[in-house]
Every structure is written in C-alpha cells, then in structure tokens.
Amino acid sequence: MFRSWFSVLMIVLGLSAAAAFAADAPKLQWDANDDADYYVVYWSKDPDSFTEENSLEVPADETYLELTASPGGEEYYYSIKAFNECGNSSDFSDVIVSAHLPLALYGGTAGKSSSGTATTAAGSGGGGSCFIGSLFSGV
Length: 139
Description:
By secondary structure, the chain is mostly beta strands. It has a single domain (1-139), classed as Immunoglobulins (Immunoglobulin-like, Sandwich). Helices cover 0% and strands 27% of the residues. The chain is globular. The protein starts with 10 loop residues before the first strand and ends in a 37-residue tail after the last strand.
C-alpha cells in the first residue's frame, strides 16, 4: 500500500565552491516520510544503476546528506529510498545529478552508518501496520 500524499523534494543547495566542512556546505535534502525509520541515499555514475556499495544510511530524524565537491567536478546521480522497521522500502525517488559526493566519505559524519554502507534488513513484504509511503518527486 502506498501513500500518494508523500513526496520527496530533493534539492541540492549551495552548489558554489564552499569549503567541505563549512556550515553552508551543499546538501541533498528531502521531505520527511512519517513511515520511515531510516533513509538510504544511493549515488552512481549511471542513473540506472544504484547499489548498496555506493549508499549511506541516514537516520529518520535527518532529512539531508551533506555533500562536497567531487574530484574533477565529476557528476554523480542520486536517489533515495525510505525504509521502515520491517525492512520494507519505498520505490526509488526521482534521480537528480550533481557534481558532489557525500561528505561522510571524507570524514564527515552526517548520514554515515557504522559500516559506512546501508543496512537493509529483509522484510516480510508488508502486511499489518508495517508499510512505507511512496517516494516521488514533485513537479
């Protein structure tokens, strides 16, 4: 079951060349999902190929991931999934592109899980009260 009222608006802010640890560092931001226990942010050089290898878990009470300029200004594609306590996930959000990488890869802490990658517990596939709202970008 999906809730169409929920939308994720991913906005990369402040794409100027800010210092990596500055308070105004660029961020990938989205609206909160009331059903989420955590989010997983995926990035890739290919907009059709997101894997756990290039992902970070973000706690449900944070709706952003700090970014830093990528080496050589190389562009990366981003998408987000929301996960609930049963391990069920939303669909991937719309994909955006940015010449930035997660700051957590360079020693920042926002969004970094203990292992540095996403943990996606296997769920039962739904049922009961354990479901997750749909993620889709606003137009």
